[in-house]
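Our collaborator T.R. sent over the components below with a one-line note: 'Predict the complex.' Nothing else. No constraints on interfaces, no templates requested, no preferences about which chain binds where. So this is a plain run: every listed entity goes in together, and whatever single assembly comes back becomes the starting point for the next discussion.
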Amino acid sequence: MSEKKMLDDQHYEEMIQEESICINDNIVYEAPKSALYDTPMHYCPGCGHGVVHRLLAEVIEEMGILNDVIGVAPVGCSVLAYNYLNIDMSEAAHGRASAVATGIKRVLPEKLVFSYQGDGDLAAIGTGETIHTCNRGENILIIFINNGIYGMTGGQMAPTTLPDMKSTTSPFGRDVITMGAPLKMTDLVAQLPGTYYVTRQSVHKPTNVRKMKKAIQKSFEYQKQNKGTCFIEVVSNCPSNWKMTPVESNKWLEDNMLPYYPLGDLKTPDGK
Amino acid sequence: MKELKLMKGNEALAEAAIRAGCDAYFGYPITPQSEVLEYLSREANNRTGMTVLQAESEIASINMVYGAAGTGKKVMTSSSSPGISLMQEGISYIACAELPCLLVNVNRGGPGLGTIQPAQGDYFQSVKGGGHGDYRLIVLAPSTVQEMADFVGLSFELAFKYRNPVLILTDGALGQMMEKVELKPQMSREFKELEWATTGRKNGNGRVITSLHLKPDEMEVLNHHLQKKYREIEKNEIRYQAINCEDADYIIVAYGLVARICQKSADLAREKGIKVGVFRPITLFPFPYQQLKEVASNKKGILDVEMNSGQMIEDVRLALEGSVPVRFHGRMGGIVPSPEEILDKLEEKFIGGAV
Ligand SMILES: Cc1ncc(C[n+]2csc(CCOP(=O)(O)OP(=O)(O)O)c2C)c(N)n1
Ligand code: SF4
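Returned assembly:
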């Protein structure tokens, strides 16, 4: 480290001390320490997974349900969620998270169970499990991260990939004639009598982050009341496989993903 | 007082599951074992509060089992050959995550959709792994309706003792046939929290059920641990039956239903003055290699009989290491050999006539 840098750091620290802004009264945000391990996440910079993990941790801590929650994370970029969330968790095979969650919830109905699934997982290989879990109205929360691509395996086409969007397996753009149109699973499950609360959120802007947090809170409240399946789609990004900077990816998400996957509630208890 | 009932094999197994205090069953209909799901749907929940859920597929069933077994509850599924094939990925995950549970395969004729008649074509799949990776199931092969019932409790005992999935490998005939069965008294479903099970965080640290270890050296350590456990199971859990083998000149080796038919063949042989004994492995994994070797030493010949093209015979040969001549008779596709047919083959292959 250069001498200049060291001086700068020192100067900076002194300045902080002098101004003394780091006092309890001034704290506006603290990491949810008991629900989130103090460890760096493996997610790429700017990826939505990290934000959703943090929100989950915040809600779990604030609701005081640390010892009542059991999470399921299937194969996909977030399979290691249990390295970040300090709660009881189960890994699941690709596509089977909602079946695994069903198994847990059926033998421990008093616990709060959630699955955390990617779009390849929930909308391709696990479509059957998703539909039937929602149709049975299992009392669980399904969080569905829709980043329009297969993240973990390196950017292949997902069922949610947009028309004409390029991926490693649709190098000329998704041709809807031969590859089908993007599947709107959230719209599908909203039709099923078993779902109680179905919503589409995002975490690309602070206001959206706050709304997403509310959606998680509500879902756990509904689960406590045994209302049926709660389903939250998060329209998210994958800067690495979209080959964009984090900022570009959020802009792209807004310009391209949101028109196809509009945000908002699809099904609410008051029947909106 | 003894509680005796006349029951179908599948129903006896289902009844035994209720009485063993099983917490949950997840399954999908397939002949010839749908009676298990049907019986449990009728009987289980109102008697013990047991969860019974008809899943949307065998893939869903086995993953529900994975989830529920991760909580330390007593859970099971059952199916028949094609359904068991669909479950293999999940079974591999369960074995790797070391979750105790009971699986039942009421084997039917294959490959493919095959027939709904009894067969033993799933021996390799059951005993040598089935799914991907180096894992073993404890495999029990009943040969009577009584054992269909008795092995349920035993399976749960072994599953929890070793944190390993246990498979009851039976067949369509045993599943469908009616016999007298003595039932065990009802056990309570009292739940004991297990320290590894995910039931909601306990001491400030989240517990994890997983089969993922990205670092190869960690994965190798886990594999060594599994292998050590399998060696332990081999040491402690071998079960077999040797019937009239001491004075026999010939031994028939068979498992499950076929072992029963072979006992009849052995009786017929003795009436003719040919001394035949029957060796029946009850645990197919662990296989009674040493026990078979001892029983078979100095015999004139071994006839291995199976309802397949010759699968267990590989283990029989491994056990005997060429010390005794081994011949095979098998029927496939759902055909059950008759006692006379088996005796004919024994005579033909060892005593006279064409080999
Ligand atoms: C049975 C099976 N098939 C394929 C894979 C390979 N695989 C792992 S993750 C994945 C897709 C991940 O995409 P997604 O579910 O959208 O999650 P993301 O990584 O984008 O968060 C695939 C195909 C697997 N692990 N198991
Ligand atoms: S590959 Fe994509 S989804 Fe996976 S961590 Fe990186 S940005 Fe996130």
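Summary for T.R.: Chain A touches chain B at residues 34, 66-70, 72, 79-80, 82, 85-93, 96, 99-104, 106-108, 111, 128-129, 132 (CB under 8 Å).
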